[in-house]
Amino acid sequence: MYASFRDSNLLFGHDKKPGDAMISEPEHETIEVRADERFDEQAVASYLRGRLAGSDQPLVVRQFGGGAANLTYELDYGEHVYVLRRPPLGPIAPKSHDMTREHAVLSVLHAAYEPAPRSFLLCEDESVIGAPFFVMERRYGLVVRRRLPEAYLAFPDATRRLGEALVDGLAQLHSIDYPSLGLEDLGKPAGFIERQVQGWFGRWEKAKHEEVPAMDATHRWLTDNLPPDSPPALIHNDYKLDNTMFSAEDPGRLVAVFDWDMTTLGDPLSDLGTLLTYWIEDDDPSEVRAFSPMPHDASGFPSRADVIELYALASGRDVAGIGFYHVLGLYRVAVILAQIHIRWVRGQTRDERFAGLGELVTLIANHAADLSR
C-alpha cells in the first residue's frame, strides 16, 4: 500500500503539470524535453512561422515536466511566449484529449469568461508532430497544489479566499450564455449524466488491468440512481484546484482555468461533483488524501459542505442531490487513473510515477462504493 500512496503523491503532488503550463516560478517551470516526448522542433517552427506574432524569431522549446495526460510545451520566441498542447503518446480513449474541441472552446470563451486562456491556432496536420495540437496564450500567476505558495503565507485568510474564488469561478462559468459564443452544438445535454455513467464504465472496461468488484458495484448504483435531466450549462468537466491559477498578489483573484479538452454542455452539478471529489478535509481516509492535489498542510479551506453552500448561493441552483455527483466523480477518478496506469503496463510511457496507480484505483473504487451506501 505504501508504494501506491508514494507514487500517487509523486503524480498529484508534483510542482508542475502539463495542463497548468503557466506557473510563474521559473526554477520549477520547465525541463528539457524528455527523450521519448520530443518532436521535430524545426517542423513546428516552420509551420508556425507567420501564423503567430513573433514567430519569425528563433524558437526555443522546453517541456512542462509534470502531469499525467496531455503533453504541454513552452514555445519561447523571446518577446512572445506561447504554450503548445498535444495528446499523450500512444492510443487514447475515443473523444478524450480532444485538441480540436479544446481549441474550439478557447478560441471564443475568453471573450465571455476572463479566466479562459485564448487559443490562437489549431494544427490538425499530424505530419507536423505526429498528433493534432493547438497553441494558446500563456497566463501568469500561481497554481496551488500540495503546498501553499510562499507568496500566500502573508495572507492569513489565503485558503478561504482561494476556495471562495474557485467556487465563484465555477458558478460564473455555468452562467455563461454559450449560444452567444456559437457553442450551442458543443454537446447534447439531454441524457448527459446517463451517457457519462455508461461512457466511463466503457472506458473502465478497456483500461482495467484486473477485476475490481467495487467498480462494478458503483456502476450499478449509479445506473440505478440516475438524476433527472437539469437545465444545461457549459461545463468544464475537470474543474479542480490544480487546473486553475490565481494572482500572486491576491489569492482571491482567479486568473486562469486550464484543461478544457472535455468541455461540453451538460449538468452543471457534475462539475461541482468533480470539485468535491478532489476536495479534502482533515478526517478524510488516506486514499482520498493520496490523490488530492490540494495542500495537505494548510488549514482554513472551506469544507466540502461549505463549497456546496457557496456554490448554491452563487449559482442559485438546487444542490440537494449532490451526493450522486460526488460518487460519480470518484468513479471517474478511478477510471482516469486506470487509463494512466494501463499506458505504463503496456509500455506506452516509461514514466515510473504511473507504476503504482493500480492499487490506488481499487482504494478509490472502494471509497466510492462506501459513499454510495
Q: Given the helix and strand composition, which structural class is it?
A: alpha+beta
Shape: globular
CATH superfamily descriptor of the largest domain:
Aminoglycoside phosphotransferase (APH), C-terminal lobe
> Considering DSSP H and I runs of 4 or more, what fraction of the residues is helical?
25-40%
Number of discrete domains: 2
Q: Identify the quaternary structure here.
A: single chain
What percentage of amino acids are in beta strands? 5-15%
SS elements, strand count: 9
**Top CATH class of the largest domain:** Alpha Beta
CATH topology of the largest domain: Aminoglycoside 3'-phosphotransferase, Chain: A, domain 2
Largest sheet: 5 strands, antiparallel
- The poorly predicted ranges are 1-27
Radius of gyration: 20 Å
* H and E string: HHHEEEHEEHHHEEEEHHHHH
If strands are numbered along the chain, what order do they take across the biggest sheet?
A: 1-2-3-5-4
Distance between the first and last residues' Cα: 24 Å
Entry keywords:
Aminoglycoside 3'-phosphotransferase, Chain: A, domain 2, five-stranded antiparallel beta sheet, 9 strands, Phosphorylase Kinase, domain 1, alpha+beta, 373 residues, disordered N terminus, two-stranded antiparallel sheet
